[in-house]
Specification:
One of its GO terms (molecular function) is phosphoric diester hydrolase activity. With about 250 residues, the chain is an alpha/beta fold. About 35% of the residues lie in helices and about 15% in strands. Bound molecules: SN-glycerol-3-phosphate and magnesium ion. SN-glycerol-3-phosphate binds next to strand 2.
Length: about 250
């Protein structure tokens, strides 16, 4: 079965990276959620995608220039719809506590540390995941592969996954050099040959971001580990329909 990961939560139907988006993802039957993590000014870990708060809150400026207390005063929902006006930017701990309570739910923690350097973020996230006893349900990912390599050395028990935007030559060799088991490629930059080669080598491939119905149908019937989607409820429905018409997998 191909897993369905909710990309920034159910971000097509709720404000991204909010507890409402994660709750809706779980209610829709997601197997996992994907979150983006970065530091505040006072070195707290918060869940927000962009380096600035401009797009997804009513504030302005860089996340790293706000303290946690200041970030918590921003509205992280009304940009999406008035219905979500009380949403706040979650801390990573709020998400870990949420995931801990949902039996079997997987969590992909993406470190947003490419543009802005976050000193010591690897040790911090590893400690938190261990404190919550979630090592076997977490996958760390990043576009910063140096950071992932560091995590793989510090916490070999937790899966790391390399995120890529472009086509890759022999990604299995590259993954080995980073120390990552997983690969999160952009959907249009892969082909069947590379999927088959990764499968042969037992590398989990989670493809992002699959939002169209025909793409969901194609990838949910392929030999990959998971899709990441902004519409996890829709993807789960399609997966159920595929199972029904094929007589159950
Ligand atoms: O992990 C897939 C995806 O989340 C990476 O891109 O920009 O949505 O964080 P982005
Ligand atoms: Mg992400």
């Amino acid at each position: 079965m191909v897993y369905v990961f909710a990309h920034r939560g159910s971000s097509g139907t709720c404000p991204e990276n909010t507890l409402s988006a994660y709750k809706e993802a779980v209610e829709g039957g997601s197997d996992g959620i994907e979150i983006d993590v970065q530091y505040t000014k006072d070195n707290e870990l918060v869940v927000i995608h962009d380096n600035t708060v401009n797009r997804t809150t009513n504030g302005k400026g860089l996340v790293k220039d706000y303290t946690l207390k200041e970030l918590k005063m921003l509205d992280a929902g009304c940009w999406f719809s008035e219905q979500f006006a009380l949403e706040r930017i979650p801390t990573i701990e709020e998400v870990l506590a949420f995931v801990k309570e949902k039996e079997g739910l997987l969590l992909n923690i993406e470190l947003k540390n490419v543009v802005i350097h976050h000193e010591g973020i690897e040790e911090r996230v590893i400690k938190l995941v261990r404190d919550y006893s979630l090592s076997n349900r977490v996958i760390f990912s990043s576009f910063n592969h140096i950071s992932l390599h560091r995590i793989s050395k510090l916490a070999p028990e937790i899966e790391c996954a390399v995120i890529t935007l472009d086509k890759q030559f022999k990604p299995w060799d590259y993954l080995a050099s980073v120390g990552a088991a997983g690969w999160h490629p952009q959907w249009s930059k892969i082909d069947q040959h590379i999927i088959n080669e990764m499968k042969k080598r037992n590398h989990p491939v989670r493809v992002y971001t699959i939002n169209k119905v025909d793409q969901m149908e194609a990838f949910l019937t392929n030999d990959i580990e998971a899709i990441m989607t902004d519409y996890p409820g829709k993807a789960v429905q399609i997966r159920n329909e595929i199972r029904r018409t094929r007589g159950g997998e």
